Amino acid sequence: MCWQLVRRRGSQEGHSHRLALACQTLRGCWWLRLSLPASVLLASRPGRAFTDRDRSILGTVMGVWENVCSGKTTVNKTSILLRNTVEAEIRQKSLGEHLRICPQGYTCCTSEMEENFANKSRSEFEAMMKEAGRSVQTILTAQYRSFDNYFQDLLNKSEKALYDTFPSLYGELYTQNTKVFKDLYSELRRYYRGSNINLEEALNEFWTRLLERLFKLMNAQYHITDEYLDCMVKHAEQHKPFGEVPRDLKVKATRAFIVARSYAQGFLVGSDVVKKVSQVSLSHECTRAVMKLMYCPHCRGMASVKPCSNYCLNVVKGCLANQADLNTEWKYLMDALVAVADRIDGPYNVDTVIGTIHMRISEAISNLQENKDSITAKVFQGCGNPKISTKGSSSEDKKRRGKVTLEAKSSAVALEMLVLDAKGNLTALKSYWVTLPGVLCSKKVMASAAADDKCWNGMTKGSYLPEVMGDGLANQINNPEVEVDITKPDMTIRQQIMQLKIMTNRLGNANMGNDVDFQDASDDMSGSGSGDSCPDDVCGKRLSKSPSTRQPETHAIPKQSGHGVIGASSRSLPSAFLLFLLGASIAVQHLWR
Length: 593
Fold this sequence. Notes:
The protein is an all-alpha fold. The chain has a domain at 114-388 and 408-475. The protein contains 26 helices and four strands. The strands form two sheets. Strands 1-2 form a two-stranded antiparallel ribbon. A hairpin with a 4-residue loop joins β3 and β4 (461-462). α5 (52-69) packs antiparallel against α6 (75-95), α7 packs parallel to α19 and α10 crosses α11 (226-237). The longest helix has 60 residues, at 111-170. The N and C termini lie far apart (87 Å). It is found in: Cell membrane; Secreted, Extracellular space. Pfam families: Glypican.
């Protein structure tokens, strides 16, 4: 009867029912039950869900009784054959000979489970990296926003004060020249945002245009042509019609704007570097190591056993070897930002310079009014007497002259607090890349204590003996947990190291009051988009291109790592010297060819 049952079920079509048929055959054929161990018979109980292991064993059963049905073997031989086959299957699965990542031995994981765990550990580890990076991005972006809001507020208040007070103070001298003042503040904002503007030339242009307009208004009884104005400007500048204000404001304002622009850009570059590095994918070797660290204990029935601390550190340091190489240049950038922050709240006094631009302009106009007669006489002497105008004279020369006192509301306390907060955060972030493995192991992987001898060491529950590797790619040559090719650095991370060097060099130049060309940085930032680095309303206004106000260090590259930063300026290189080195290297390469 049993034989008929086997033959009848073996002749049925439909490969999808083979496991169910095998299960029914186990329950109906005594000779098959006798040939199987108890663990397999449990799988044949009605209502039990098939596991991967059940399917494997029952598949073996199905293959054997198909041979019986086809006459390839006898029932007597089948009992022995089936028992031997199934026991071999069970022995192979228990010893973990099918595992490719986890250590072989007793296991509850199939190959499919191991692969799923590997994918899961990879995605979880990459998520940990992005989450850690986002916290740093949040800090840097918040510092950028705080300073940007403060600086823009200073400029806005100065402009508003000018618009509010100048009409009553200067009458037509202001109302007929409103565009000149608006254009000045517009150019200052564009420079701060990184537009291709030469700040010194913009200021010079402002004073020239203002002098031409005011001279013409104060001598409205004369017919003054554009050619005469050109001559007037040349002669008047020799006699300083605005006093020392233009020269003094140019020196102080350019320094203040240079450090402000570089300071804001430094935070955005730092945030963008973290974002791009956090998105670097794990290597195949690292994925295997992380899987072994996080989920192989589950396959050994030790889900509650935590990884050993030093074991976790070696895995993560091996996986983040390239990221750790950012450490030197990252510290230089943090130090450079701190140094520039001291300048902003110190010698360059951004609060006083930017917040009182309208007052300095008023002072300059007052100087011109006071010296109107002498300036006019000297201009007439050098350029000749202009013709009398038929329109008549203006009464504007009778407007109030002399010194004008305007009040300025200082926000120095707010700047001091802003700088202190920034310096604290920058100092805390200096060691981010080398402390990241420890942070991930302690807070994310939840590694056990270093001295614990009951932790997961990669093979079993016990102590972890190998020493912890150093930081960086070069120190991973003997890493016992992750196979790292130290001759092939990650190119994305190398590019970000170069961006850190370039930004640090710009900050060094700004710290000395030298302007820099932001073309490279703006291109990099525009390619990154708004992303997680900063909000759309910030990134939408990112620095595009900027000019050099003095001798711009357009292609200046900082010195290679290995030297500390006492002031950010200590790492600056002259452009001419860099060009010489570049030409020499090209020549050498040509000779070698």
